[in-house]
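Severity: low
Component: inverse-folding endpoint
Summary: output formatting inconsistent between runs
Steps to reproduce: submit the following C-alpha coordinates with default settings.
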Protein backbone atom coordinates (compact mmCIF):
# COMPACT_ATOMS: atom_id res chain seq x y z
CA UNK A 1 0.00 0.00 0.00
CA UNK A 2 1.43 3.44 -0.88
CA UNK A 3 1.62 6.20 1.73
CA UNK A 4 -1.24 8.21 0.21
CA UNK A 5 -3.62 5.24 0.49
CA UNK A 6 -2.39 4.46 4.03
CA UNK A 7 -3.00 8.04 5.13
CA UNK A 8 -6.45 8.15 3.51
CA UNK A 9 -7.32 4.85 5.16
CA UNK A 10 -6.47 6.36 8.57
CA UNK A 11 -8.55 9.47 7.80
CA UNK A 12 -11.58 7.46 6.66
CA UNK A 13 -11.27 5.19 9.68
CA UNK A 14 -11.25 8.29 11.92
CA UNK A 15 -14.52 9.44 10.26
CA UNK A 16 -13.81 13.18 10.46
CA UNK A 17 -11.89 13.12 13.78
CA UNK A 18 -8.24 14.18 14.11
CA UNK A 19 -5.54 11.55 13.60
CA UNK A 20 -2.45 12.25 15.74
CA UNK A 21 0.72 13.02 13.77
CA UNK A 22 2.61 10.30 15.66
CA UNK A 23 0.00 7.72 14.58
CA UNK A 24 0.32 8.79 10.93
CA UNK A 25 4.11 8.66 11.17
CA UNK A 26 3.97 5.12 12.55
CA UNK A 27 1.52 4.01 9.86
CA UNK A 28 3.57 5.51 7.05
CA UNK A 29 6.89 4.43 8.61
CA UNK A 30 8.18 7.94 8.16
CA UNK A 31 9.52 10.61 10.59
CA UNK A 32 6.76 12.83 12.07
CA UNK A 33 8.40 15.91 10.52
CA UNK A 34 7.75 14.46 7.04
CA UNK A 35 3.99 14.01 7.54
CA UNK A 36 3.32 17.61 6.46
CA UNK A 37 4.85 16.76 3.05
CA UNK A 38 2.59 13.72 2.63
CA UNK A 39 -0.42 15.84 3.62
CA UNK A 40 0.56 18.49 1.06
CA UNK A 41 0.60 15.80 -1.64
CA UNK A 42 -2.98 14.84 -0.83
CA UNK A 43 -3.95 18.53 -0.85
CA UNK A 44 -2.42 18.78 -4.33
CA UNK A 45 -4.86 16.08 -5.43
CA UNK A 46 -7.78 18.16 -4.15
CA UNK A 47 -8.27 16.88 -0.58
CA UNK A 48 -9.03 19.44 2.14
CA UNK A 49 -7.11 18.61 5.31
CA UNK A 50 -7.00 20.56 8.56
CA UNK A 51 -3.79 20.65 10.58
CA UNK A 52 -3.82 21.19 14.36
CA UNK A 53 -0.64 21.74 16.36
CA UNK A 54 -1.72 19.29 19.10
CA UNK A 55 -4.38 16.99 17.64
CA UNK A 56 -2.75 16.20 14.28
CA UNK A 57 -4.68 16.16 11.00
CA UNK A 58 -8.22 15.53 9.90
CA UNK A 59 -9.87 15.14 6.52
CA UNK A 60 -12.52 17.73 5.74
CA UNK A 61 -13.23 16.99 2.09
CA UNK A 62 -12.30 14.82 -0.89
CA UNK A 63 -12.34 15.81 -4.57
CA UNK A 64 -15.24 14.73 -6.77
CA UNK A 65 -13.01 12.47 -8.83
CA UNK A 66 -12.77 8.70 -8.85
CA UNK A 67 -9.28 7.60 -7.81
CA UNK A 68 -8.28 3.98 -7.30
CA UNK A 69 -6.24 4.73 -4.14
CA UNK A 70 -9.10 6.62 -2.59
CA UNK A 71 -11.66 3.88 -3.25
CA UNK A 72 -9.21 1.25 -1.99
CA UNK A 73 -8.63 3.24 1.20
CA UNK A 74 -12.37 3.17 1.95
CA UNK A 75 -12.79 -0.52 1.11
CA UNK A 76 -12.65 -3.59 3.32
CA UNK A 77 -13.71 -6.19 0.81
CA UNK A 78 -12.01 -9.52 0.17
CA UNK A 79 -12.54 -10.34 -3.50
CA UNK A 80 -14.27 -7.44 -5.23
CA UNK A 81 -11.71 -4.67 -5.76
CA UNK A 82 -8.64 -6.92 -5.51
CA UNK A 83 -7.48 -4.61 -8.31
CA UNK A 84 -9.10 -1.27 -9.15
CA UNK A 85 -8.47 0.77 -12.29
CA UNK A 86 -9.97 4.14 -13.17
CA UNK A 87 -10.02 5.40 -16.75
CA UNK A 88 -10.82 8.96 -17.74
CA UNK A 89 -12.70 7.62 -20.76
CA UNK A 90 -13.36 4.24 -22.37
CA UNK A 91 -15.75 2.91 -24.97
CA UNK A 92 -17.34 0.53 -22.43
CA UNK A 93 -15.90 -0.72 -19.13
CA UNK A 94 -17.49 -4.11 -19.92
CA UNK A 95 -15.25 -4.30 -23.00
CA UNK A 96 -12.13 -3.37 -21.00
CA UNK A 97 -12.81 -6.11 -18.45
CA UNK A 98 -13.68 -8.65 -21.16
CA UNK A 99 -10.36 -7.90 -22.81
CA UNK A 100 -8.37 -8.01 -19.56
CA UNK A 101 -10.02 -11.28 -18.51
CA UNK A 102 -8.05 -13.08 -21.23
CA UNK A 103 -4.77 -12.51 -19.40
CA UNK A 104 -5.97 -11.80 -15.87
CA UNK A 105 -6.09 -14.79 -13.56
CA UNK A 106 -8.44 -14.67 -10.59
CA UNK A 107 -11.39 -12.41 -10.08
CA UNK A 108 -12.41 -9.16 -8.45
CA UNK A 109 -10.84 -6.73 -10.93
CA UNK A 110 -12.92 -3.54 -11.06
CA UNK A 111 -12.69 -1.02 -13.89
CA UNK A 112 -14.32 2.41 -13.53
CA UNK A 113 -14.52 5.10 -16.21
CA UNK A 114 -15.33 8.76 -15.64
CA UNK A 115 -17.12 8.62 -18.99
CA UNK A 116 -17.97 6.03 -21.64
CA UNK A 117 -18.33 6.74 -25.34
CA UNK A 118 -20.13 3.47 -26.10
CA UNK A 119 -21.78 2.53 -22.81
CA UNK A 120 -24.37 -0.15 -23.45
CA UNK A 121 -27.39 -1.46 -21.61
CA UNK A 122 -29.41 -4.63 -21.97
CA UNK A 123 -30.72 -5.61 -25.40
CA UNK A 124 -28.00 -3.48 -27.06
CA UNK A 125 -29.50 -0.22 -25.82
CA UNK A 126 -27.30 2.85 -25.44
CA UNK A 127 -26.30 3.68 -21.86
CA UNK A 128 -25.55 7.36 -21.53
CA UNK A 129 -22.46 7.86 -19.33
CA UNK A 130 -21.68 11.57 -18.94
CA UNK A 131 -18.30 12.55 -17.49
CA UNK A 132 -18.06 12.73 -13.73
CA UNK A 133 -21.81 12.36 -13.18
CA UNK A 134 -22.19 8.72 -12.31
CA UNK A 135 -20.55 5.42 -11.48
CA UNK A 136 -19.85 3.46 -14.66
CA UNK A 137 -17.93 0.31 -13.84
CA UNK A 138 -17.46 -3.40 -14.49
CA UNK A 139 -16.31 -6.28 -12.32
CA UNK A 140 -14.63 -9.53 -13.37
CA UNK A 141 -16.18 -12.55 -11.65
CA UNK A 142 -15.43 -16.24 -11.88
CA UNK A 143 -18.23 -17.68 -9.76
CA UNK A 144 -18.44 -21.25 -8.75
CA UNK A 145 -21.85 -21.50 -10.40
CA UNK A 146 -23.21 -23.15 -13.54
CA UNK A 147 -24.27 -20.88 -16.38
CA UNK A 148 -27.92 -21.60 -15.57
CA UNK A 149 -27.45 -19.85 -12.20
CA UNK A 150 -25.91 -16.71 -13.70
CA UNK A 151 -29.12 -14.71 -12.98
CA UNK A 152 -28.17 -15.00 -9.31
CA UNK A 153 -25.39 -12.52 -10.00
CA UNK A 154 -27.85 -9.94 -11.35
CA UNK A 155 -30.07 -10.43 -8.30
CA UNK A 156 -27.10 -10.17 -5.89
CA UNK A 157 -25.82 -7.04 -7.67
CA UNK A 158 -29.24 -5.37 -7.62
CA UNK A 159 -29.54 -5.94 -3.87
CA UNK A 160 -25.98 -4.64 -3.33
CA UNK A 161 -26.66 -1.47 -5.37
CA UNK A 162 -30.03 -0.82 -3.73
CA UNK A 163 -28.69 -1.38 -0.23
CA UNK A 164 -25.64 0.87 -0.67
CA UNK A 165 -27.69 3.58 -2.33
CA UNK A 166 -30.11 3.54 0.59
CA UNK A 167 -27.19 3.77 3.02
CA UNK A 168 -25.30 6.68 1.44
CA UNK A 169 -28.24 8.74 0.12
CA UNK A 170 -31.05 7.85 2.52
CA UNK A 171 -33.31 7.36 -0.53
CA UNK A 172 -35.90 4.59 -0.71
CA UNK A 173 -34.07 2.61 -3.42
CA UNK A 174 -36.00 -0.40 -4.72
CA UNK A 175 -35.42 -3.20 -7.21
CA UNK A 176 -37.40 -3.71 -10.37
CA UNK A 177 -36.66 -7.21 -11.63
CA UNK A 178 -34.47 -8.13 -13.39
CA UNK A 179 -31.86 -5.42 -13.35
CA UNK A 180 -33.13 -1.98 -12.45
CA UNK A 181 -32.72 -0.04 -9.24
CA UNK A 182 -35.39 2.61 -8.91
CA UNK A 183 -36.21 5.55 -6.66
CA UNK A 184 -39.74 6.97 -6.62
CA UNK A 185 -40.55 4.73 -9.60
CA UNK A 186 -37.70 6.07 -11.77
CA UNK A 187 -34.66 4.10 -12.83
CA UNK A 188 -31.42 5.31 -11.21
CA UNK A 189 -29.19 2.30 -11.92
CA UNK A 190 -28.93 -0.65 -14.28
CA UNK A 191 -27.02 -3.91 -14.34
CA UNK A 192 -25.63 -5.71 -17.36
CA UNK A 193 -24.31 -9.25 -16.89
CA UNK A 194 -22.31 -10.70 -19.76
CA UNK A 195 -20.74 -14.14 -19.84
CA UNK A 196 -17.29 -14.67 -21.32
CA UNK A 197 -14.95 -17.57 -21.79
CA UNK A 198 -17.47 -19.54 -23.82
CA UNK A 199 -16.99 -20.45 -27.47
CA UNK A 200 -20.43 -19.05 -28.12
CA UNK A 201 -21.70 -16.29 -25.88
CA UNK A 202 -24.99 -17.53 -24.48
CA UNK A 203 -27.24 -14.98 -22.83
CA UNK A 204 -26.84 -15.28 -19.06
CA UNK A 205 -29.50 -17.60 -17.71
CA UNK A 206 -30.28 -19.46 -20.92
CA UNK A 207 -29.97 -23.25 -20.82
CA UNK A 208 -26.53 -24.59 -21.76
CA UNK A 209 -26.62 -26.53 -25.07
CA UNK A 210 -25.40 -30.14 -24.69
CA UNK A 211 -22.25 -29.51 -26.79
CA UNK A 212 -21.46 -26.28 -24.99
CA UNK A 213 -18.13 -26.71 -23.15
CA UNK A 214 -18.66 -23.66 -21.01
CA UNK A 215 -20.06 -24.92 -17.72
CA UNK A 216 -18.62 -22.32 -15.36
CA UNK A 217 -18.35 -19.14 -17.40
CA UNK A 218 -16.54 -16.04 -16.31
CA UNK A 219 -18.83 -13.07 -15.89
CA UNK A 220 -18.45 -9.39 -16.55
CA UNK A 221 -20.81 -7.54 -14.24
CA UNK A 222 -21.43 -4.02 -15.55
CA UNK A 223 -23.12 -1.47 -13.32
CA UNK A 224 -24.24 2.04 -14.18
CA UNK A 225 -25.50 4.36 -11.43
CA UNK A 226 -26.86 7.80 -12.30
CA UNK A 227 -25.46 9.58 -9.28
CA UNK A 228 -25.26 13.31 -10.00
CA UNK A 229 -26.86 13.45 -13.46
CA UNK A 230 -29.12 16.40 -14.22
CA UNK A 231 -32.30 16.12 -16.28
CA UNK A 232 -30.49 17.50 -19.33
CA UNK A 233 -27.92 14.65 -19.11
CA UNK A 234 -30.52 12.03 -20.07
CA UNK A 235 -31.26 11.25 -23.72
CA UNK A 236 -34.85 12.21 -24.69
CA UNK A 237 -36.03 8.57 -24.96
CA UNK A 238 -35.36 7.86 -21.25
CA UNK A 239 -35.91 11.34 -19.82
CA UNK A 240 -39.35 10.44 -18.43
CA UNK A 241 -38.36 7.14 -16.86
CA UNK A 242 -34.80 7.76 -15.61
CA UNK A 243 -33.57 9.87 -12.74
CA UNK A 244 -30.50 10.31 -10.58
CA UNK A 245 -29.72 10.23 -6.89
CA UNK A 246 -29.03 13.97 -6.97
CA UNK A 247 -32.37 14.74 -8.61
CA UNK A 248 -34.29 12.52 -6.19
CA UNK A 249 -32.48 13.66 -3.03
CA UNK A 250 -32.02 17.30 -3.98
CA UNK A 251 -28.32 17.20 -3.09
CA UNK A 252 -25.07 16.21 -4.74
CA UNK A 253 -23.88 12.74 -3.73
CA UNK A 254 -20.35 11.60 -2.91
CA UNK A 255 -19.51 9.25 -5.80
CA UNK A 256 -16.37 7.77 -4.22
CA UNK A 257 -18.20 7.00 -0.98
CA UNK A 258 -20.97 5.25 -2.92
CA UNK A 259 -18.42 3.41 -5.07
CA UNK A 260 -16.73 1.94 -1.99
CA UNK A 261 -20.09 1.07 -0.40
CA UNK A 262 -21.25 -0.74 -3.55
CA UNK A 263 -18.01 -2.70 -3.91
CA UNK A 264 -18.13 -3.71 -0.23
CA UNK A 265 -21.77 -4.80 -0.57
CA UNK A 266 -21.02 -6.65 -3.81
CA UNK A 267 -18.27 -8.56 -2.02
CA UNK A 268 -20.75 -9.69 0.63
CA UNK A 269 -23.60 -10.56 -1.74
CA UNK A 270 -21.33 -12.22 -4.30
CA UNK A 271 -20.18 -14.66 -1.60
CA UNK A 272 -23.80 -15.24 -0.55
CA UNK A 273 -24.87 -15.80 -4.18
CA UNK A 274 -22.57 -18.83 -4.28
CA UNK A 275 -23.27 -20.20 -0.79
CA UNK A 276 -26.61 -19.12 0.62
CA UNK A 277 -28.66 -17.52 -2.10
CA UNK A 278 -31.76 -17.84 0.15
CA UNK A 279 -30.61 -14.87 2.23
CA UNK A 280 -30.37 -12.74 -0.89
CA UNK A 281 -33.82 -13.83 -2.07
CA UNK A 282 -35.24 -12.68 1.27
CA UNK A 283 -33.57 -9.27 1.03
CA UNK A 284 -34.53 -8.94 -2.63
CA UNK A 285 -38.18 -9.63 -1.68
CA UNK A 286 -38.10 -6.81 0.88
CA UNK A 287 -36.80 -4.34 -1.70
CA UNK A 288 -38.68 -5.57 -4.77
CA UNK A 289 -41.27 -3.50 -6.64
CA UNK A 290 -42.05 -6.53 -8.80
CA UNK A 291 -43.00 -9.27 -6.35
CA UNK A 292 -46.72 -9.83 -5.88
CA UNK A 293 -47.61 -7.67 -8.88
CA UNK A 294 -49.47 -8.53 -12.06
CA UNK A 295 -46.86 -8.20 -14.81
CA UNK A 296 -46.47 -8.13 -18.54
CA UNK A 297 -43.07 -9.44 -19.59
CA UNK A 298 -41.96 -8.93 -23.17
CA UNK A 299 -39.11 -11.02 -24.58
CA UNK A 300 -38.62 -10.08 -28.21
CA UNK A 301 -41.97 -10.83 -29.85
CA UNK A 302 -43.18 -12.94 -26.93
CA UNK A 303 -45.52 -11.40 -24.36
CA UNK A 304 -46.31 -13.19 -21.11
CA UNK A 305 -48.74 -12.00 -18.48
CA UNK A 306 -48.87 -13.27 -14.96
CA UNK A 307 -48.51 -12.77 -11.24
CA UNK A 308 -44.94 -12.42 -9.90
CA UNK A 309 -44.79 -15.14 -7.25
CA UNK A 310 -41.18 -15.61 -6.24
CA UNK A 311 -37.58 -15.98 -7.33
CA UNK A 312 -36.29 -19.52 -7.71
CA UNK A 313 -32.88 -20.81 -6.64
CA UNK A 314 -31.30 -19.73 -9.95
CA UNK A 315 -32.63 -16.17 -9.68
CA UNK A 316 -35.36 -16.71 -12.30
CA UNK A 317 -38.72 -15.03 -11.72
CA UNK A 318 -41.66 -17.41 -11.27
CA UNK A 319 -44.73 -16.03 -12.97
CA UNK A 320 -48.16 -17.60 -12.38
CA UNK A 321 -50.14 -17.23 -15.57
CA UNK A 322 -53.94 -16.86 -15.64
CA UNK A 323 -54.27 -20.55 -16.56
CA UNK A 324 -52.44 -21.45 -13.33
CA UNK A 325 -49.23 -22.54 -15.04
CA UNK A 326 -45.94 -21.33 -13.58
CA UNK A 327 -43.43 -19.94 -16.06
CA UNK A 328 -39.76 -19.35 -15.24
CA UNK A 329 -38.69 -15.98 -16.61
CA UNK A 330 -35.00 -15.34 -17.14
CA UNK A 331 -35.02 -11.89 -18.68
CA UNK A 332 -37.05 -9.48 -20.72
CA UNK A 333 -38.73 -6.14 -20.16
CA UNK A 334 -41.17 -5.94 -17.32
CA UNK A 335 -44.23 -3.72 -17.08
CA UNK A 336 -46.24 -3.70 -13.89
CA UNK A 337 -49.95 -3.92 -14.64
CA UNK A 338 -51.44 -3.73 -11.16
CA UNK A 339 -50.90 -4.94 -7.60
C1 LIG B 1 -29.29 -1.63 -18.29
O1 LIG B 1 -30.01 -1.12 -17.42
O2 LIG B 1 -29.72 -1.87 -19.42
C2 LIG B 1 -27.86 -1.98 -17.95
C3 LIG B 1 -26.98 -0.77 -17.93
C4 LIG B 1 -25.53 -1.10 -17.63
C5 LIG B 1 -24.61 0.09 -17.81
C6 LIG B 1 -23.22 -0.20 -17.32
S1 LIG B 1 -22.22 1.26 -17.21
C7 LIG B 1 -20.80 0.29 -16.94
C8 LIG B 1 -20.91 -0.91 -17.85
N1 LIG B 1 -20.38 -0.62 -19.15
C9 LIG B 1 -21.31 -0.65 -20.09
O3 LIG B 1 -21.12 -0.42 -21.31
N2 LIG B 1 -22.49 -0.96 -19.56
C10 LIG B 1 -22.39 -1.18 -18.14
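Observed output (run 2 of 3):
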Amino acid sequence: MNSGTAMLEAFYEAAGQFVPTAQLAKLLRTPAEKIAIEVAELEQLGYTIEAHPHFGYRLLGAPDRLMADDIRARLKSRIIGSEILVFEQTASTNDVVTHMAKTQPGEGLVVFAESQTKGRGRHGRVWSSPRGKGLWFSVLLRPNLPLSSAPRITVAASVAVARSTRKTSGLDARIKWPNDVTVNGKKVAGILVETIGCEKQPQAGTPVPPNQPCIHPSIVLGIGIDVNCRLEDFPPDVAGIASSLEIESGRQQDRAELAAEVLGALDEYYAAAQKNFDTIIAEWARLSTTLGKQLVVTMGKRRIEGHAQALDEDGALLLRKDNGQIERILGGDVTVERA
